[in-house]
Design brief:
There is one protein chain. The chain has 8 helices and 3 strands, in the order ααββααααβαα. With about 230 residues, the protein is mostly helical. Keywords: Membrane, Transmembrane, Transmembrane helix.
């Protein structure tokens, strides 16, 4: 008895395993996108460099400017936000559109990573610091000395690279993932399944109101009593 039931249970669970694995893969992918984008956005708001200007009038005229990642790389935050928006769009698309969106995510992640790395160059830091010093009325007439907090730029680069990898995965393997619209798709026959040889019996208006009072869908026929 037990030996005959085991194959039946395995056959019933078999068709569900690929769909379950696809949903799990999609959830892991979404978590990776959120982690990579969140890391890059967190790093963009932190101080990356501190610049000190030594004015010619003496050390009392020296000025100091602190620069965040978003100030050094203006395109960092928009690139990450665009990648995250595209990641959400993956859920609502399929086929070629999903592959194209995956490529967009990779490009946005690449732009974020490349921009974060370029933001650590000395000329970029010095030029941005002079612009902020002139706006904040900080003395900036002498030599420039700067220090970089490397943890945050590297974190932004890592977050961008995670988005690049996520976009590649979506473009290559995203065709096996389910979409938000799949649960609303109509059956292959174009309508609700019906038992052969049976037509839907018309329901009275009173019966429909009673079904609404009970919280049921009045358009669904209740099961018939087979004992009669």
């Amino acid at each position: 008895m037990s030996g005959g039931r085991a194959p039946d249970a395995a056959a019933a669970a078999g068709p569900r395993d690929p769909a379950r694995a696809a949903r799990r893969s999609l959830l892991v992918w979404l978590a990776a996108c959120a982690a990579g984008g969140g890391l890059a956005l967190l790093a963009a708001g932190r101080t990356w460099a501190a610049v000190t200007f030594s004015a010619q009038a003496g050390p009392l005229s020296a000025g100091r400017v602190s620069l965040s990642g978003g100030e050094l790389v203006a395109s960092l935050t928009p690139s990450v936000l665009a990648a995250l928006a595209a990641a959400v769009a993956v859920l609502a698309t399929r086929g070629i559109a999903r592959r194209v969106i995956g490529a967009v995510i990779s490009l946005c992640g690449l732009a974020a990573a490349a921009g974060a790395w370029s933001g650590t160059r000395a000329e970029t830091i010095a030029g941005t610091a002079r612009e902020h010093a002139s706006t904040a009325m900080v003395p900036s007439g002498g030599a420039v000395a700067h220090s970089v907090t490397w943890a945050w730029p590297l974190a932004a680069v890592a977050g961008g690279l995670v988005l690049v990898a996520a976009g590649v995965v979506a473009a290559v393997a995203g065709g096996r993932w389910p979409g938000m619209s799949s649960r609303y798709d109509r059956p292959a026959g174009g309508g609700p399944a019906r038992t052969p040889g049976r037509e839907r019996a018309p329901r009275s208006e009173r019966a429909m109101w009673d079904a609404l009072d009970e919280g049921a869908d009045p358009t669904i026929e209740p099961p018939r009593d087979r004992s009669s």
